[in-house]
Amino acid sequence: MNLDFTPKECCGLFGIWGHNQASYLTYLGLYALQHRGEEACGIVSSDGKEVFQYKGMGLVGDVFNGEIIKSLPGDRAIGHTRYSTTGASLLKNVQPILVNYSQGTIAIAHNGNLVNALALHNKLEKEGSIFQTSSDSEILIHLMARAKAKGHLEALLKSLRFLEGAYCFLLLTPSALFAVRDQRGFRPLWLGKLDKAYVFSSETCAFDLIGAEPLREVEPGEVMVVDEKGLRSFKPFRERVIPSFCIFEHIYFSRPDSKIFGETVHLVRERLGRKLAQEHPVEAELIIPVPDSGASAALGFSQESKIPLEYGIIRNHYIGRTFIQPFQLIRDFRVKIKFNLLKDVLKGKRIVVVDDSIVRGTTSQIRVRNLREAGAKEVHLRISCPPHKFPCFYGIDFPTRKELLGARFKIKEIEKFLNVDSLGYLSLEGMLSCVKAYPQENYCVACFTGNYPVKFGREGDKFALERKCCGE
Ligand code: SF4
To answer: How far is the CA of 127 from the centre of ligand 1 (A)?
Structure first.
C-alpha cells in the first residue's frame, strides 16, 4: 500500500432489517468496513415510524459511542464509511444523507461514482431542484422526487435508468430497505442473514464479525427490497450488459478475509504473487511484503520462488488522521511513522519487496532509500498488477494521468527513478489469469488499459460537480 495513495479509497455500505440491535450491528459492520473510507461515517436507523440519524467526521470508533448507539433505536438501519470520491469533505456530505421528499422520508448511502453526475445535476437544477450537498449521491433522490410514482419503490425503479457509472446504494425509509447494484457491478455488495434479519454489506468481512451468514451477492442490475412482506428482487434494466467487476478491489481495496466477485480476496492475491514470481523471477534471499495489502501476494511469491518470506517492514496501525510533521527534523517522517524497518532482518540481504501497486511513486522511492539505509544489499521490487496509466472514474480516487508514474515513464525509467536493482510488474494477462470466478471480460481493467467500460464526456471528471457546487 502506497502512502501517496492511502486515503483515496471508496466507500463502505452496511444495512440490516429485522433485528432489535440494528444500529449496534451496523456500527460493528462499519467497523469491519473501515478500510473502505476513513474520512467520515454515519448511521440512520428507524423503528418503523420515525427515523434517527448520527454522522460525523473521523473513524467509526471515534465517531460513535454507546450513548450515541442508544440514540439510534429501531430494528432497521443503514450505515456508511466514507472517503469522498465526489463531494468535498464537509459534514453535510457525510452519508447516509437523510431527506424528506414527495414520497416521505428516505436515507441514502452510496458507494461508487456517477459519470453523468454533472449533466444530471445541471438538468435537475434547471427544473427547480435545490441540492443540499455537493455529492453525486443526492442526485438519485431528486430523480425519485420527480418520478411521478406511487411510492418509494416505483420512484427508485424509474430513476435508476438515468444513472450512468458505478453505484451500489442502500436506501432506508421507515417501511423498507432497498439495496441496489449497477448493471456492471463495479463495486461489491452482499446479501446475508443473521437469525431472521436480512443484512447487506460491501464485503463479507462485516458478516463474519457479527456472525451473519453470507447468502449471495446482489447481482449486477438488481434491486432488492426488504419490508414487512419479506425480501423481493427486481431487475429493472431491460438490456443486458457485460459486468465490469473492479479488479482493483481484489488487488488492493477489499480486505483479504472478504469474499467479493465470487472469490476470497486473499486467495486471488496469493495467485497474483505466484504469477508474479513466474513472470519476474529473481535471485534473492528474502521476500519482504509491504504491509498489509502486499502480504498475500508476497506469500504467493514466496511459495512459488521458494525464497523465504520474512517481515522486514512493520506497519504502525495507530496513526491518527493528522499529526504534526516535524519538517526538516526527521527525513522521510511521513513514510517512517507508518512503516518501520527491521534492520537486523534486512542487513546485508538481497531482498524482493512485494507491493500491490505504485501510484505516484514518491513513497516507493522513499521506502527503497530507507531499505538501503537499513542495510539491504539489493532491493528488487515486484508489483502484483500492471502499471497504472489511467485514472478511475468509477469510484476509486486515483490522481490525474500526469501524476501517475506508470503513465509518465517506461519500466526502465521507473526502475531508475525508484533506484531499485530490478523492477517487475505483473502483466495484464497474468493478472487476469488470477481471477477465476468469472470470464476475464467481466472485469474492469480500465486504469491499466484506458478502455473504459462506461463511456463519459467531460462531465465524467469526478471533480466537475464539486467545482460547480463549491464555485471553484
Ligand atoms: S478503472 Fe481500475 S480502479 Fe476503477 S473500476 Fe476499473 S479496475 Fe477498478
So the answer is: 33
CATH numeric code, 12-244: 3.60.20.10
Residue type, 95: Q
Q: In sequence order, what DSSP letters do the residues of 396-410 get, joined into one string?
A: -----GGG-HHHHS-
Question: How far is the C-alpha of 167 from the C-alpha of 163, rounded, in Å?
Answer: 9
Please tell me the predicted confidence (pLDDT) of residue 7. Answer: 34
Instruction: Return residue ranges of the chain for CATH 3.40.50.2020.
Output: 266-316+325-437
Tell me if 444 sits within 8 A of 186, measured CB to CB.
yes
Burial of 266 (0-12, 13-18, 19+ CB in 10 A): buried
Known catalytic residue: 168? no
> Which residue out of 186, 242, 272, 394 has the highest number of ligand 1 atoms within 8 Å of its CB and is therefore the one to mutate?
394
Alpha helices in 234-361 (DSSP H): 247-248, 265-279, 295-305, 333-338, 343-346
Q: Is 445 in the pocket of ligand 1 (CB under 6 A)?
A: yes
Low-confidence ranges of the chain (pLDDT < 70): 1-9, 84-89, 319-331, 458-472
Question: What CA–CA distances, in Å, run from 84 to 163, 180, 389?
Answer: 19, 20, 22
Q: Tens of pLDDT along 132-164?
A: 887 888 899 999 999 989 999 999 999 999 999
How far does the centroid of ligand 1 lie from the alpha carbon of residue 282, in Å?
A: 29
pLDDT recorded at residue 8: 41
Please answer whether residues 471 and 412 qualify as being in contact, where contact means their C-beta atoms are separated by less than 8 angstroms: no
Name the closest-CA residue to atom 4, ligand 1: 392
CATH 3.90.45.10 for domain 266-316+325-437, yes or no, is no
The alpha carbon of 53 and the centre of ligand 1 are apart by a number of angstroms equal to 32
Q: In angstroms, what is the span from residue 102 Cα to ligand 1's centroid?
A: 36
User: Is 431 touching ligand 1 by the criterion CB < 6 Å?
Assistant: no
